[in-house]
Amino acid sequence: MIRVEKVSKEFALEAGNFTALRETDVTIGKGEFIAVMGPSGSGKSTLLQILGGLDLPTSGSVEIDGVRLERLDEKGRTLFRRTKVGFVFQNYQLLPMMTVAENIALALAANRAPKAEIDRTVARLIREVNLEGKASSYPSQLSGGQQQRVAIARALAMKPALILADEPTGNLDRQNGEDILKLLSRLNKEEGITVVMVTHDRHAAETADRIITLRDGAVVEDAMEGAGRK
Ligand SMILES: Nc1ncnc2c1ncn2[C@@H]1O[C@H](COP(=O)(O)OP(=O)(O)OP(=O)(O)O)[C@@H](O)[C@H]1O
Predict the structure, then answer these.
(1) Residue 45 Cα to ligand 1 middle (Å)
(2) Lower CB count within 10 Å: N or C terminus of the chain?
(3) Which atom from ligand 1 is nearest to the alpha carbon of 49?
(4) What is the predicted ipTM?
(5) Which domains are present in the chain?
């Protein structure tokens, strides 16, 4: 489903070019739950950004469900991001002036879905992430764990086949982190959504079926996990 071939990413810095990814190859099957680990600066977030079409590789190719991302123009990439991928970030990235329901509805509204459909979908997603009663709350009125669940509901709104999560438990305490991992795991196992999660936390990574380790912009280890989280 996802094929990353010889992907390199260079950033132009004053001191010269910096290589964040070097000829990286990764293949991810549909329905896999992958953790990406590695030291700080090893290229994890860069890889995730490229997988999500938020950034383009300097060279190499990224194919997702038969679509070569580097062949899309800016408009095509925006549509790809909005309809095919759900993003979840460490700091949630909710819009503070919008309610929970409005945050979740954003992509649907941007895609001009009818209001009745938006309302139905938002209500279903709020139930799915266990936030009943919070539809009219603002992000600042919620705990970190609740905000991350709003972010996951927002990511699910367009029924993506792929969720890209960058340190989704990084700002959460153990219990809230655990709840988010269970939610991602359930979405993966029950709804067949492919999940690629960057994490520093080995315990979080063990939720995944497979752990890819990067170092200096290259894959140095690619290992299947045991039975995953019970
Ligand atoms: N926009 C940018 N401009 C210049 N350099 C960048 C840019 N984005 C990332 N880098 C550099 O590329 C390298 C890889 O960054 P990346 O964020 O992918 O690492 P990471 O493994 O996710 O690290 P961390 O665990 O600290 O988040 C880093 O050295 C970083 O400084």
Answers:
(1) 7
(2) C
(3) 18
(4) 0.94
(5) 2-224 (3.40.50.300)
